[in-house]
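Marked as duplicate of an earlier ticket. Keeping the data here for the record.
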Amino acid sequence: MIYFFDIDDGDFIYKGDFRTERNLKNDEWKEVFKDKNFELFYSRNYKWLLEERYDEYVSYKNKLQSLQYKSIQDDMKLIDSVNYTFLFMCEYVDEKSAQQLLEEYNRIRKLNIKYTEKQIKLIQIKKELSKYIYSINAYKFKNDVLLEKRDNFYIVENGYIYFDNLKNKLLTANSTLDIEAFVNDVGLFV
């Protein structure tokens, strides 16, 4: 059994994609999915494509024949999403804080030393810093971004508030990020 939930505005998300002209609110479309008559679904989509967007169809077919994969990938993309990277300013028990590591990273970047030596030091710091970094693939921020962006990260001050299993506001080996609370607080549209 399949359940469908009507949570978000499909027209807003898919921005004019012809497949949103009909949805499961339409009784005929409900029957197509209930009966698993996907051949009918795809033949109607194909027919619509030929009638309404023939030039685009021909262009796509030519790209496919000439193996223009990047262009095809762009054509097939349904939702434009972005990978947002967040640096949670907090600290694990008995370890350096995110703030200390970030300061050390920036200090090393400014050093006038051999390139390879600098890169090795930076990689070591990045490895330690990675436990404070989370990347979230999202559509966009719902409102204006209230987080500071520094060094390609959105800085989450007092980041510990989004974690559980704390010890005196410090993260432990058992701490996990409450991603749902974080996404809601910063207003990410995922």
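See parent ticket for discussion. Residues 162 and 179 are 8 Å apart (CA to CA).
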